Amino acid sequence: MSESYEDGVCGDGAPDFIPPRAIRSGRRSGLGVPLVERDEAALLESVKAAPRRSSIIKDPSVAKVSGGRKKTVSFSSMPSEKKVSSAADCLAFMQGGCELKKVRPNSRIYSRFYTLDPELACLRWEPSKKDGDRARLDISAIREVRTGKSTETFLHNGPSDHLAEEAAFSIIHGDEYQSLDLVALSADVANIWVTGLRYLLSHPGSIGGGSGGDGGVGEGSIGNKMRQNWLVAEFALVDEDGHGFVSEDTAVATICKLCPGIREAKVRLRFKEIQRSKEKLTSHVTLEEFQEAYCELCTRPDVYFLLVQLSKDRECLDAQDLRLFLETEQGLPLATTEGCLELLRRFEPSTAGRERGLLGLDGFTRYLQSAECQLLDPEHQNVCQDMKMPLSHYFISASYRSYLLDDQVHGRADLGGLIRALQAGCRCLEFGVTDGPEGEPLLGVDHGTDGKHHHHHHHQHHHHHHGSVTLRSALEVVNKYAFLTSQYPLLLYLCQRCSPSQQRTLAQHLKKVFGPKLYTPESLPVSLGGRATTLPSPEQLKGKVLLVGKKLPPEEEGSEGEVSEEDEEIGGGGPLAGRRMTIPGEEELGVVLVVPPPPQPRRLRLRRELSDLVAVARIGSRNFYAHRTSAQPSQQHSPLSTPSTPGTPMTLDPPYWTLCSLGEGEAGRLASESPEELVNFTKRNLTRVRPSSVRLDSSNPNPQGYWKGGVQLVALNQQTPGAMLDLTRGRFMQNGGCGYVLRPAVMREEVSYFSAQSQGCVPGVPPQTLRVKVISAHSLPKPQGSGAKGEVIDPYVVLELHGVPADCTEQRTRTAAQNQDDPLFDETFEFQVNMPELALLRFVVLDDDYIGDDFIGQYTIAFECLQPGYRNVPLLGLAGDPLPHGSLFVHIAITNRRGGGKAQRRGLSVRRGARRGREYVTLRNTGIKVLDDTFRPASGPLREATDLREDALSATVAFKEQCGLPPMATLKQCIQSLATRLQSPDGTPCATLTLKEGYPCLEPVGNLTDATRKLLNGYDTIISSNKQLIENADGVHERIAQVQKEGMVFHEDLARLGEKENLKGRKQSKAVESFAWNITVLKGQCDLLRSAKLDALDTLRQLALACEVSGLILTSDGHYTPHGLSSRRGSSHGNGRI
C-alpha cells in the first residue's frame, strides 16, 4: 500500500514537472556528477606522519608515480580512510604534497604539485619555469587565506566558472595583496590546505620548525589537550581498578555512550584492527588505544574544519568566538556573551572546558547536532501566524478516510487511523457513514460520492462482511483527541447514505458526544455567521467542531426533505464533460480517462435534525462554474462576486458558509487552465479536493498542484506513506503544527494578481536565492526494503524544490561510494525561488547500491521555516518516524529576502551589474483610457525605486567582493577584513570612523596602498548609496502609493468603464486582470521600498558598530549612536513615515 517515492513533483491536471528520478531504471549513476578517483583516495593509507597519539594520517611522504610526480588524495570516498582531527594532521599532509590547479588572470589553468617544506617556512611547487629558490612562497609573506572563489581572478575568469566553489581557495600575499588562486581535486583537500595555512599564520612560532609555544604543533593545541584530558577522565571512570586497561566490551560501551549514534559493530571492528596491528594476544584496551579509537571514529572532519576556521586554530571556541559565529553564520544578531557562556556550559563535556569557558571539538559537535541548530525555525514550533482572518485565508490539513486500513474497496475500518491523523494535526476528517444493524450507523467505505450508484443494501452488506466500527465509537475517539494537538476548529466532512431513521440516530450521537463543542449556525452570535460578509476565523472557532454536509434548502419547512447528491468526482457536471483527462501525477502511468456526461443528480432524503447540525453546506463543482459565469465583469461590479443567502444549495454564487468539493482531476485542470479564476474563487470560498476514485490503492495526489491554485483543503490518505504525504507534513509543520497555515497575501487580498501557472517572478513578491550546501550525512541506516548484503551503502542526496512551476526543480549530490553511514559531500546547490510562501524543500537520501528499495530517509520543510547557517536536518523514515540519530549537516543561505520580517538574518542580494542591464518592473495596459492615464505617472517613481534599492545592494555586494568575501558574508566580517588591512606596523589604524551629517564615514590617515584605498572607496560607495536610499525613499514611496490610491477609486466601476470602451468577453476579462496586476505591482513596490529603507538604516548601524568593535575609533565621545540618523533629519527620515 506504500505510495511510490517516484511520483511527479509538481503534477496537476497537466503535470508541469516530472523529475529525472521519476523512472529509476538506468539511473544508478544519478545525474552524472563526477566522482573523485578511487586510486587517488587509496593512497591515503601510505601517507605517514610523525608519531603522535592523535595522528590519523600515517605518512607525509606520498608514493611516487610515473615521472617522479606525486598524486593527491581524497578524504571522502573510501570507508577505510582515516579522518583529519588536528592541525598537525593537516601540516603532515601538506608536507607530503598534492596536485592543485593554479588559475591565472589570463584564463589559463595549470596543474602544479605543491608541498610545504619540512621547516614549515614556505610553499614550493613544480614544475615551474623559475629555478627552485624562486618557485616558492614564504609563509611570512602570506596576508590571509580565503575560501571559495572570491578574488578578482576567480570572479572575472570565464573558465573558473566550471571549477568547484568548495574546492577553491586563494592565498593573499605581499604588500600589494596579490593572490595565488588554487583549486584542489576535492573540498576535503582544500580544507586541509586552508586549515594548515591559517594555523601557520596564527602560530608564527611554528614557522622554521619551532613548537609555536602554547598550542604549538608539537605540544598540541589548547582544544586538543582539553580533549585528551577529558578522555583520560572518562577512561578512569570505567577503569575502576586503576590497572590502565579495560575490557573491550567496556571500551566499546564507553565510546558508544560518549558518541551517540555510532554503531557498536564499527567501534568493535576498530579495536580488533588495533589488536591485530599490535599482534596482541589479549582483547584488553589501554588508555592510548581508547583515545586513538575515539579520535578516529568520533571526529567529524566537517566539524573540525569549521571549528579551526572559527577558533584561530586553537581548536576550541571561547564565548566571543561563539558569539561571532552566531551573529555572522547563524543569523542571530542579538546573541549575547552571557548566552554564549550558557551554551558552552551546556554542551562542553570536559570539566576543564566548562571552567575556562571554552568549547572543544566534541562540545561543538554536540551543539551542532542539538535542537539549537535544527533547520526548522523555532518561531514555527508554536503558532506564530495571524489566526484572526477568515477560514478561507488558510491552508487546512485534511484527511481522507484515514480510518481505512487497506485499499478503498476492501478497506477495514480502524480507529487508530483517526487517532494518528488528529495527532498529526489534521483539522478536517472525512466520514463515510452507512446504515448498520440494530439501528446503529456504521463507519466505513461510502461509494456514493464516487459516482458508482450502488444500491444502498449493497453497502450495508459490504460493511458487515468486513467487520464494522460504529459511528458512535468513532465520534467518541474524535472527541477525545480532537483538540490535544491543536485548539483550532475541526471540520467533520460527512458523506452519509443512511436511512432517515438512522440519520436521526446520527444527529443524536453528534449532539451527545460533542455537546457544546459542536458548532451550529445558531450556537454563536450572528456576527460569526448568517449573512456576515466573511467566514469566521480559526481564533473565533477555537475548540469547536464544525459539521460539513448536505443541508436542506431554506424553503423546505418539513421534518424531512430532498437534496441533490452531486457527483464530486471527475467531470462534476462542468464544461469538461466528454473530454479526455489525465489524472494528476499519473501521466507516466498512462491513466487517461474520458469524462462521461454528467448524470442527473440523485435525490436523497435528508432529515431536518441532521441538516440543522450542518454548519458548512457541502456543494459540488457546478457551483464553481456558476460562480465563474456570474463573475463575468459585465454582470457585476468587481472581479469578485457578491454573496447570496447562506444555506441555498444551488445559487449562481455560493454563500460563504459552504465548502465546494472538487474532484482531483477537475481541480487539477482548473489549476492549469483557469488559475486566476480558481484563486479568486478561493479568496472567499472554502474549496476541497479529494483523491480520485481510480486510486483504489489509497495512493495520494500531489497536493502542491492544488495549493498553488489556492485550494484550502487537499484531503490525503494519511495512512499511505510516500512523497505526497511528506509534502503535506512539511507544509503543516509550520505555524506550530496547528493544522492551519496562512495563505500568501496575493491569495487573500481582494485586488491582487496571482497565477498558479506563473513561469517567472510573481508581481509584488520579491524572488529569493536559496543556497544549500550539503556537507555530510550521519548514522544512515540501510534502506528498509533493501536486499543487499553487508552494511556498506552508496548514499547520495536529492534536493527537490516544490512550488509554482517556475520553482519546481531537482538537484543531487554525487554518490559517496562505499562510504558506509557517515559520508562527506561538501556540495553547494542554488535555487531561484519566485514564490517563497508556496515553496517546499525536500531532502531525500537514497542508496545507489540498492537492490529493491533505495529509500533511506527524507525531510521536507517549508521555505519560510528555513533557518540560515549551519543546520542539522533530522531524517525521517518512510512512515514519517525519525531515524535514530540519522541526519544531514547542511549550510543554508537565503539572499535578497525583502519584506519578510527577517531581513537582518538573511544577507543581501547577489545580483550585480550596471543600471543599463537592470530589469525594471512595468505596469500593464488595461485598454481603458482613464485607467491607463491614472497608472502612467507611476512609471517614473517605479524606476527610481528600483534604482535606489539596487544601487544599495550592488554597492554592498561589490564591497564584499573587494574584501574577498562571498555574497552571504555579513558586514561585520567585511569590516574585520578591512580593519586588518588598515592596520599600520605600529598597530594604529590607517583610518578612523567619523560622523558626517550623521553617516558613519571612514577618514584615511597617512599613506595608503592602492589596494587599501580601493577598499575604502568601496566602503564610501555603500555609505553614499544607502544615504540616497534613506533620504529619497519617502518621496518615491508617496508618489507610488498615490497612484495606487487613485487606481483603487475605479475598482468598483470596472464593468461600466469597460462597457464604455466597448470591451467585451475576453478583452473585458483581460482589462480586469491587468488592473489587478497593476495594483499588485504598486503595492508590492511600496512594500519593497519600505523594507529597503529599514535595511539601509540597519546597514549603517551594523557598519558603525563593526568599525567600533574592530578598533577604528571615531568621534569625540568615542561612540556611534544610530539615533544620529533619525534625530538629524526629523520624522521624515530614519524612523519616519515608511
UniProtKB/TrEMBL annotation:
<dbReference type="GO" id="GO:0005737">
    <property type="term" value="C:cytoplasm"/>
</dbReference>
<dbReference type="Pfam" id="PF00387">
    <property type="entry name" value="PI-PLC-Y"/>
</dbReference>
<dbReference type="InterPro" id="IPR000008">
    <property type="entry name" value="C2_dom"/>
</dbReference>
<dbReference type="GO" id="GO:0032228">
    <property type="term" value="P:regulation of synaptic transmission, GABAergic"/>
</dbReference>
<dbReference type="GO" id="GO:0046488">
    <property type="term" value="P:phosphatidylinositol metabolic process"/>
</dbReference>
<protein>
    <recommendedName>
        <fullName>Phosphoinositide phospholipase C</fullName>
        <ecNumber>3.1.4.11</ecNumber>
    </recommendedName>
</protein>
<feature type="region of interest" description="Disordered">
    <location>
        <begin position="550"/>
        <end position="581"/>
    </location>
</feature>
<dbReference type="InterPro" id="IPR000909">
    <property type="entry name" value="PLipase_C_PInositol-sp_X_dom"/>
</dbReference>
<feature type="compositionally biased region" description="Basic residues">
    <location>
        <begin position="452"/>
        <end position="467"/>
    </location>
</feature>
<keyword id="KW-0443">Lipid metabolism</keyword>
<dbReference type="InterPro" id="IPR017946">
    <property type="entry name" value="PLC-like_Pdiesterase_TIM-brl"/>
</dbReference>
<keyword id="KW-0807">Transducer</keyword>
<dbReference type="Pfam" id="PF16457">
    <property type="entry name" value="PH_12"/>
</dbReference>
<dbReference type="InterPro" id="IPR011992">
    <property type="entry name" value="EF-hand-dom_pair"/>
</dbReference>
<feature type="compositionally biased region" description="Low complexity">
    <location>
        <begin position="638"/>
        <end position="651"/>
    </location>
</feature>
<keyword id="KW-0963">Cytoplasm</keyword>
<dbReference type="InterPro" id="IPR011993">
    <property type="entry name" value="PH-like_dom_sf"/>
</dbReference>
<dbReference type="InterPro" id="IPR015359">
    <property type="entry name" value="PLC_EF-hand-like"/>
</dbReference>
<feature type="compositionally biased region" description="Acidic residues">
    <location>
        <begin position="555"/>
        <end position="570"/>
    </location>
</feature>
<keyword id="KW-0442">Lipid degradation</keyword>
<feature type="region of interest" description="Disordered">
    <location>
        <begin position="628"/>
        <end position="655"/>
    </location>
</feature>
<dbReference type="GO" id="GO:0048015">
    <property type="term" value="P:phosphatidylinositol-mediated signaling"/>
</dbReference>
<feature type="domain" description="C2">
    <location>
        <begin position="748"/>
        <end position="877"/>
    </location>
</feature>
<dbReference type="GO" id="GO:0004435">
    <property type="term" value="F:phosphatidylinositol-4,5-bisphosphate phospholipase C activity"/>
</dbReference>
<dbReference type="InterPro" id="IPR035892">
    <property type="entry name" value="C2_domain_sf"/>
</dbReference>
<dbReference type="GO" id="GO:0007214">
    <property type="term" value="P:gamma-aminobutyric acid signaling pathway"/>
</dbReference>
<dbReference type="InterPro" id="IPR001192">
    <property type="entry name" value="PI-PLC_fam"/>
</dbReference>
<dbReference type="Pfam" id="PF00388">
    <property type="entry name" value="PI-PLC-X"/>
</dbReference>
<dbReference type="GO" id="GO:0051209">
    <property type="term" value="P:release of sequestered calcium ion into cytosol"/>
</dbReference>
<dbReference type="Pfam" id="PF00168">
    <property type="entry name" value="C2"/>
</dbReference>
<feature type="domain" description="PI-PLC Y-box">
    <location>
        <begin position="656"/>
        <end position="748"/>
    </location>
</feature>
<keyword id="KW-0378">Hydrolase</keyword>
<dbReference type="InterPro" id="IPR001849">
    <property type="entry name" value="PH_domain"/>
</dbReference>
<dbReference type="GO" id="GO:0016042">
    <property type="term" value="P:lipid catabolic process"/>
</dbReference>
<dbReference type="Pfam" id="PF09279">
    <property type="entry name" value="EF-hand_like"/>
</dbReference>
<feature type="region of interest" description="Disordered">
    <location>
        <begin position="440"/>
        <end position="469"/>
    </location>
</feature>
<dbReference type="InterPro" id="IPR001711">
    <property type="entry name" value="PLipase_C_Pinositol-sp_Y"/>
</dbReference>
